[in-house]
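Example record for the data management plan.
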Amino acid sequence: MLRNWGMEANHLALLDGYVTAAIRPTLNSAGLIGGSAGIGSNPGSNSGTVVANLPDNTGMIAGSGEMLQIVRGTHTPPSGTSFLWDTRSSNEYNGVSGSTPGAPVPVFEGTLRDPESGGPAAWIEWTNTGLVNSTVGRFNSTATLQSTLNSRGIVSTDTIYTWCRTSYRAMVGMIVGHISLGYPLKVYDEAWMGWGFLSDNSGDLPAGSLFLADRTAETANGPTFNSGPGNPGGAISVQTSPSGIIINDKAYKGIPWTDAGTF
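Corresponding structural encoding:
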């Protein structure tokens, strides 16, 4: 998230591993090692806003429009070919009815269709032992990470697109693919809670919308329609551009943007 909003990589660090039993006793009530903090306390004169972060990193995320262009074969990625990586559980990936956890319930289940093979996107679950060592709670060596991705057809010249339900679990893909290995990678920001509502069947889109994805041409391992789906509340239907969500972020930071055209 911080990288997306313009924080430079050399100002960020990642704790690789759990907060172990050896460290836990040193934490204060705020969960910090030393010092003190309170909810609502004034951060002081050094506080600021993401608007002040100058680098434009909005290219690290993708919206539903871009993902639809990919599965329909009309998108040119920044590097190589587009490689779709689903990090969710087996049931979610395979389109089992009701498998998406939490609420609201998406209209349908499945995964994105890969434009190259015509089949489902690649699946490497975020807990895969080739990515993380659950015994010590750390990521594997870069050599093991690269071997794991290469074994699934992911190479350094491709642009990886990864997601989960809300792109929380997809951050494992971001850390492995982009931070650790340096592969070109974009996170599908709306994730399955965006894609699973791209429907005019109790979804958030009108009949005939160009954003419909509840068809086998766009969704593999399905689409499997759920009973009693929720409603995302109009967030999807206002996006009339391939990069609608990116445009909104750029506008917030006051970055000039010329739209490539409507979807």
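Summary line stored alongside the record: Residues 233-239 have pLDDT under 50 and may be disordered.
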